[in-house]
Design a protein that fits this description.
This protein is of the alpha+beta class. The chain has 8 helices and 7 strands; from the N terminus they run H-E-H-E-H-H-E-E-H-H-E-H-E-E-H. It has one domain. Strands 5-3-4-6-7 form a 5-stranded mixed β-sheet. A hairpin with a 4-residue loop joins strand 6 and strand 7.
């Protein structure tokens, strides 16, 4: 008996049906993957919220956003290093927010390795003594600090336009500085951190729960930064990459804070290179301040009560700014 086979038309129909099914399946798989990533990110931020509250329970106040002596470049004498304010003249301690939270996210062993008074020693590999060797503190990753939806989640390390890549581990999560987190100061009319210091986390200053008079359910504590900005990363004027910001252990303002007076998911405009120098500088600084994420339509945030909320990038700028400040006295409705 002759064996029956497929005709060419039948084979093409089967292939077409399989192609259609695959086309329908891929978006569903991507949605499931993003939902899982968003949940993981939310859990990371929940852990950071709990860590901050546990720190507060232990110390009676929240940690510094940045603890760093910078009087030589700080025109605002109101925010000196607390040791300098007490009369100390050298040997100032230096660290940033996420370092202070390490013991509360099951990273006590890493916490004890930090050299709080000899900053440059944190570049040394404790095993080999090699500068920026694989065990150097600045290169140490912490999974809780990386959002799986971020553009650099697969290799969360610095990528400078010049110099050696991979020297600094980058975080996806930042403390709320309030209105502005970067730059620390500016003399050309741009807003800076030291002009406000009105968020939960500040430089050289620790806040208590009672300092959040706007209410903990109406005040941002942590939020995401998105490491994706094609204009920023390719502009010869910017001469930088967004993936070279967020050196979480370094303790600079642009690596620890974000500010609420910039729209969520703000990116440099396509005409950035053709703008005037003053406008370019403002937009550059705005990008360093901006919250954002790889999630569609907004970003995850931890509020000061420890809860995690997804906030749309279409939120009113007035409402976002009100959420950023801890004691602005604003009335905030639904968001």
């Amino acid at each position: 008996m002759k064996r029956q086979g497929f005709t060419l038309i039948e084979l093409l129909v089967v292939i077409a049906i399989i192609a259609v099914l695959i086309g329908l399946l891929l978006p569903a798989v991507q949605k499931v993957r993003e939902a899982a990533a968003r949940m993981s990110c939310s859990n990371n931020l929940k852990q950071l919220g709990l860590a901050a509250h546990n720190y507060h329970d232990t110390a009676g106040k929240f940690p510094y956003g940045v603890l760093r002596d910078q009087t030589s470049s700080n025109p605002s004498p109101g925010f000196p290093h607390p040791a300098r304010a007490s009369g100390q003249t050298s040997g100032f301690t230096r660290h940033a927010l996420m370092y202070a939270l390490l013991p509360y996210i099951e990273q006590q062993n890493l916490y004890t390795r930090w050299n709080d008074t000899n900053f440059d020693a944190n570049h040394l590999d404790p095993v080999t003594g090699v500068v920026d060797g694989p065990q150097a503190f600045f290169k140490q990753p912490v999974k809780t600090l990386v959002c799986p939806s971020n553009a650099n989640a697969g290799s969360s390390f610095s990528e400078p336009t010049s110099g050696t890549p991979g020297i600094y581990f980058l975080t996806s999560y930042y403390g709320s500085a309030g209105t502005r987190g970067y730059p620390r100061w500016a003399t050309d009319g741009r807003p800076g951190l030291f002009a406000f210091q009105d968020g939960v986390f500040n430089q050289n200053k620790q806040n208590k729960m009672t300092d959040i008079s706007d209410g903990t359910t109406n005040t941002l504590m942590f939020g995401e930064r998105h490491y994706f900005d094609p204009i920023f990363d390719t502009s010869p004027v910017a001469d930088d990459r967004i993936k070279d910001w967020g050196w979480v252990w370094f303790g600079a303002q642009g690596d620890a804070f974000l500010g609420a007076n910039v729209a969520i998911n703000f990116k440099l405009p396509a005409n950035f290179d053709s703008l005037g120098a003053a406008q370019q500088q403002l937009l550059f600084d705005d990008r360093i301040n901006a919250y954002g994420s790889g999630h569609t339509g907004g970003a995850n945030f931890t509020l000061a009560d420890g809860s995690v909320r997804f906030i749309s990038d279409s939120i009113s700028p007035v409402t976002l700014l009100a959420l950023g400040t801890r004691a602005g006295g604003e009335v905030i409705g639904n968001f």
